[in-house]
Design goal:
- The complex is a heterodimer of chains A (about 230) and B (about 170).
- With about 230 residues, chain A is mainly alpha-helical.
- Chain A has 12 helices and no strands.
- Helices cover about 60% and strands about 0% of the residues of chain A.
- The longest helix of chain A has 25 residues.
- Chain B has 2 domains: about 30 residues; about 90 residues, Orthogonal Bundle (Flavocytochrome C3, Chain A, domain 2), CATH 1.10.1130.10.
- Chain B is built from 3 helices and no strands.
- Helices cover about 20% and strands about 0% of the residues of chain B.
- By secondary structure, chain B is mainly α.
- The chains are: A mainly alpha (about 230), B mainly alpha (about 170).
- Chain A: Pfam families: Cytochrom_NNT.
- Chain A: Keywords: Cell membrane, Electron transport, Heme, Iron, Membrane, Metal-binding, Transmembrane, Transmembrane helix, Transport.
- Chain A: It is a single-pass membrane protein.
């Protein structure tokens, strides 16, 4: 106890001494050196920081851990986001890290929890990963629901969607739920890039709200009505 | 006991056996000759190259039918076919993408036909509240259709038309 008190006191003295030193004007170094040096150091520091950030934002970095490489990365390779007819590939950070700087930094700070998990082997085996999968997936779904599926919309925007090129079913559902803003991408498109956890109790986005179930919803099926009407015309 | 009263080979019967063996072998020789004259015709393989080890050029995959139109069943017990694409649909122990639309609770929102009532009965005929485990894996019976050309001609006749003169 006495030791601890002495240690804290010593640390405090150090802080005070440091503050006294930096709060006084420099007696030996010229102002030009300090400002220019500060600027150059700032550039180097900022550049280095951003470069490091960019490195952590690559698929190579993500899959350098066996947790990611052996589980989710293997699953991604089977999906349309990895190989497809047009050759556009979504890598890990495209979907899991926001592109905007502020959001990105916020996500990176959150990711320090993942470093903790890595150090303590939270999902170090396949079994541990499968047990955690629902929790982890729910985090990701909640994040995408909260930001209105921002990472999906970085590539797929609803204004650029040609509904006539979609199947009628897809166009119907998109105009009913997506355009009206009732639902966001992740509500319906879960498990598009990885295998799903146990989905018992996780309901699809098109499930009618409990208060609407069984109610007459003819207004929602206007298109069908219109089609029936035009067909009945002589 | 077995073989106790086996008849002894007489000289005559021995002679007969020798004659028969000679005749048999000469017949076999003639048979081989006739086989060479008329080569065996093999039915051509339906898939792959004639030479089993040859490199084959893979034809492009056929396109699935995605028009969402319900198809008539060819016979009453036929499981209805899937008239939409099921690429990337997860049908595992954890998730069943088919039931996310075709389950009773979800049909109102999805507009998909509900799985038939037979799918709620377990093998003892007990009606359950949800799909019975033996019907869980949809693609065991329900299949997607593609625009592929049939490999062999099909002589299927609808039960309605059997015995009817056209």
């Amino acid at each position: 106890m006495v030791n601890l008190k002495a240690l804290i006191l010593a640390a405090w003295r150090l802080v005070v001494r440091f503050w006294r030193t930096i709060s006084r004007p420099s007696a030996y170094l010229p102002l030009g050196f300090l400002t220019l040096g500060g600027f150059i150091c700032g550039v180097i520091f900022w550049g280095g920081f951003n470069t490091a950030l960019e490195i952590t934002n690559t698929e190579k970095f993500c899959t350098s851990c066996h947790e990611m490489r052996d589980n989710v990365y293997q699953e991604l390779q089977q999906t349309v986001h990895f190989t497809n007819r047009s050759g556009v590939r979504a890598t890990c950070p495209d979907c899991h890290v926001p592109h905007q700087w502020t959001d990105k930094i916020a996500r990176k700070m959150q990711a320090s929890k993942e470093v903790w998990g890595k150090i303590f082997g939270t999902i170090s085996t396949r079994e541990k990963f499968l047990d955690m999968r629902l929790t982890l997936a729910k985090h990701e779904w909640a994040r995408l629901e909260a930001n209105d599926s921002l990472e999906c919309r970085n590539c797929h925007s609803s204004v650029a969607m040609d509904f006539t090129k979609q199947t009628r079913r897809a166009a119907d559902i998109h105009s009913r739920y997506l355009l009206t803003g009732q639902r966001t991408c992740i509500d319906c498109h879960k498990g598009i890039a990885h295998q799903l956890p146990d989905m018992t109790g996780v309901e699809p986005g098109w499930k009618e709200a409990p208060e609407l179930q069984g109610k007459d919803q003819t207004s929602l099926h206007l298109a069908d009505q219109l089609r029936a009407y035009t067909a009945s015309l002589p | 006991m077995r073989g106790q009263d086996r008849p002894r080979l007489s000289a005559l019967s021995l002679l007969m056996i020798v004659v028969a063996a000679c005749a048999g072998s000469s017949l076999a020789v003639i048979g081989a000759g006739s086989q060479e004259a008329a080569p065996v015709t093999l039915v051509p393989r339906l898939t792959g190259t004639a030479d089993p080890m040859a490199q084959n050029s893979i034809p492009p995959l056929d396109r699935p039918i995605v028009d969402d139109m319900r198809r008539m069943r060819n016979y009453p017990e036929q499981p209805p076919i899937i008239p939409h694409s099921i690429d990337g649909y997860q049908l595992t122990l954890n998730a069943n993408r088919c039931l996310e639309c075709h389950k009773r609770e979800f049909t109102e929102g999805s507009g998909a036909p509900m799985i038939s009532v037979t799918h709620f009965q377990d093998r003892d005929g007990q009606v359950l509240a949800d799909v019975t485990p033996r019907r869980y894996f949809c693609t065991e019976c329900h299949v997607q259709q593609t625009d592929a050309r049939p490999l062999v001609p099909n002589n299927f006749v609808d039960a309605d038309d059997v015995g009817r003169k056209k």
